[in-house]
Amino acid sequence: MIDWLYSLPETLILVACALIMAGAILAMPSLVHRLPGLQTSNENNDFVLRMQATLFTMTSLVLAFTLVEAEANFRKADALVSNEASQINRLDRLLNRYGDEQVTELRLNLLEYTKAIVDDEWPAMLRGERSDKVRLAFAPLSRGIFEIEPKPGREATIYAEILRSFDSIAESRDARLNAVSLSLPQPYWQVVLFAVLMLLFITSTMQRSAFRAYVLAAQMAVMGAFIGFVFIMDQPFKGQTAVDAKPLRQAIVLMENRDR
């Protein structure tokens, strides 16, 4: 529902989150102080200051833990794409090393398959779809590899490595497609939202002054920026810093230049 936010510049997302949090802490006290039993006093203010410090620390820890989880998901997705590109390049190298003209067409099929991933499947998988073009390019490659009849000795050894690499490529593609939906579980965001709302509420019960308002607005702006950063990192394949197909494009260049 909010995936369209990833089409915005990431700097804009960070600034917007910071401004929303700063604006909230400036606007909420005028509403909270109207509630029965929430009139401020020196005695209550000391208690609120201690509670606010504790709650801010706890909320910051939750955000830090959430950011670690988001970054781990990002690194996992990036590693999957890099591993897939490495397996494709390795298979092309093995086919080239096989030294038989019957595998020359298979290298072309592998190159076509890789280009189909970059040009057709990558945009499709971001929409939650699979590419028929990639499936069609994979079929002749699979059929051709299993039709190879290696001779005992060197060819048989290389063919065993070819089969292992081919299986790894198929598994890597499935892992990449499954990782498109990789994100923080919804309870993470529910806990963060609840903690932030409680922090804003507790902070809003303080006695107001211009100096305190500016300092609290700056504090909440920092927290808002961190929330925006976690949001940016939450979807590894979306946004400006998303995992992209660069390793696969590099593999294509290596494959095209291998015989030159």
From TrEMBL:
What's the domain of life for this entry? Bacteria
Q: Which residues cross the membrane?
A: 12-35, 47-68, 188-206, 213-233
A Pfam family this protein belongs to?
Bestrophin-like
- Asked whether the keyword Transmembrane is assigned, the reply is yes
Which keywords does this chain's UniProt record carry?
Membrane, Transmembrane, Transmembrane helix
Matching entries from InterPro entries are given as: DUF4239 (IPR025333)
| Name used for this protein in its record | DUF4239 domain-containing protein
Taxonomy of origin reads:
Bacteria, Pseudomonadati, Pseudomonadota, Alphaproteobacteria, Hyphomicrobiales
